[in-house]
């Protein structure tokens, strides 16, 4: 399984944190178990938990971190699977990476819940329904959507391409001014390559919904055109490397994670005029999910917590303002809860309509692996 880009490294192990969950003193303790790095735990401890507790006297929200990356989500999976035969489980809400939600559903570890809360109707993007080919509709609400887009310097790019086909033509006319990290050093490059396959391979976006053993056989021309494209591209050292070269004017365009882009902008590392564009037919992103374990001890309270966490006001203040992430619910629902400056920063270049039509998921896990292997074999050689 490919390892997705994580957060800061968590300081407490999964075992010790699960042990801490038994030490609650409040009338009711809601255990929120989250994969990801320490900022995911801190978000619940410092922001989400206190706000929920204020609205629900007698409730204590306990954040339990399982660690960064795929391993953190795998730890949640193993914890729930180990309790499968028990009448109730000590995990009330689980926040996990996209890749593990399909296996969790297959093992009957999740409850279908989104139709029972108001916020469930506010998340309609592909990422709320499809998790690397697994149909998770009804079982998840994205906590946030982290998106790959193309950043460009408008001083160097007067008419930015809006599709992969236009980009291919632009790169020929402007050699070495587009840069990306291939498939090494970060998922922004993998996201760009995946979008290329969506645009030029006969299988197109079908590889996001199911595995087709015959799809790979039709990728030859798309990979050949990408190899030709690379002759006019600059290969960067990684996610940060693309942003660094963009900031120094060594390249004019390149794929980036949107949240990283805005962090670099805020730190003054990029030309303040730098903009974003989401290429058609689409570029992938990755969410983390709020899920409801099938035998959560405090199911009703867990539903209330997820509904609160996914509400427009909390998504606006916690997800958009604090982290520069796109909201897990559809963007138009948070607009009224955001000041105009924040809204314009995040949604002027890439609009909610762009996200709805061109914000795609990564493909089925097996196809994603095949894309990376095919790139190594056919594009880098």
UniProtKB/TrEMBL annotation:
Keyword match Membrane: no
InterPro entries, sorted: SBP
Protein name: ABC transporter substrate-binding protein
Alphabetical UniProt keywords: Signal
Gene3D superfamilies, sorted: Periplasmic binding protein-like II
Source organism phylogeny: Bacteria, Pseudomonadati, Pseudomonadota, Alphaproteobacteria, Rhodospirillales
Species: Elstera litoralis
Signal sequence range: 1-26
Coiled coil location: none
């Amino acid at each position: 399984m490919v390892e997705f880009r994580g957060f800061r490294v968590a300081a407490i192990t999964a075992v010790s944190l699960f042990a801490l969950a038994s030490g609650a003193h409040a009338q009711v303790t809601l255990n929120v178990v989250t994969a990801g790095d320490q900022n995911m735990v801190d978000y619940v401890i410092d922001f989400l938990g206190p706000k929920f507790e204020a609205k629900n006297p007698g409730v204590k929200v306990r954040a339990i971190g399982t660690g960064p990356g795929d391993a953190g989500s795998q730890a949640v999976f193993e914890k729930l699977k180990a309790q499968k035969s028990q009448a109730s489980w000590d995990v009330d809400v689980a926040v996990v990476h996209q890749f593990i939600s399909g296996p969790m559903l297959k093992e009957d570890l999740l409850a279908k819940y989104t139709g029972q809360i108001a916020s469930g109707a506010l998340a309609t993007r592909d990422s709320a329904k499809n998790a690397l080919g697994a149909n998770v509709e009804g079982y998840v609400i994205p906590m946030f959507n982290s998106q790959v887009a193309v950043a460009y310097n408008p001083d160097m790019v007067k008419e930015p391409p809006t599709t992969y086909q236009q980009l291919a033509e632009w790169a020929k006319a402007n050699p070495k001014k587009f840069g990306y990290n291939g498939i090494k050093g970060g998922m922004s490059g993998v996201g760009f390559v995946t979008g290329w396959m969506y645009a030029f391979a006969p299988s197109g976006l079908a590889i996001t919904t199911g595995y087709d053993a015959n799809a790979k056989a039709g990728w030859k021309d798309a990979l050949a055109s990408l190899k030709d494209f690379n002759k006019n591209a600059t290969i960067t050292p990684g996610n940060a490397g693309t942003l660094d070269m963009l900031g120094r004017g060594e390249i004019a365009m390149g794929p980036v994670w949107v949240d990283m882009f805005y962090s670099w902008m805020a730190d003054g590392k990029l030309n303040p005029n730098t903009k974003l564009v989401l290429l058609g037919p689409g570029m992938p992103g990755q969410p983390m999910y709020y899920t409801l374990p099938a035998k959560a001890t405090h199911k009703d309270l867990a539903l209330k917590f997820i509904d609160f966490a996914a509400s427009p006001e909390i998504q606006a203040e916690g997800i958009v303002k604090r982290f520069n992430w796109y909201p897990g619910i559809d963007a138009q629902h948070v607009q009224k809860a955001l000041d105009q400056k924040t809204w314009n920063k995040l949604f002027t270049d890439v609009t909610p309509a762009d996200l709805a039509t061109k914000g795609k998921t990564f493909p089925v896990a097996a196809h994603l692996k095949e894309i990376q292997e095919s790139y190594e074999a056919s594009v880098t050689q």
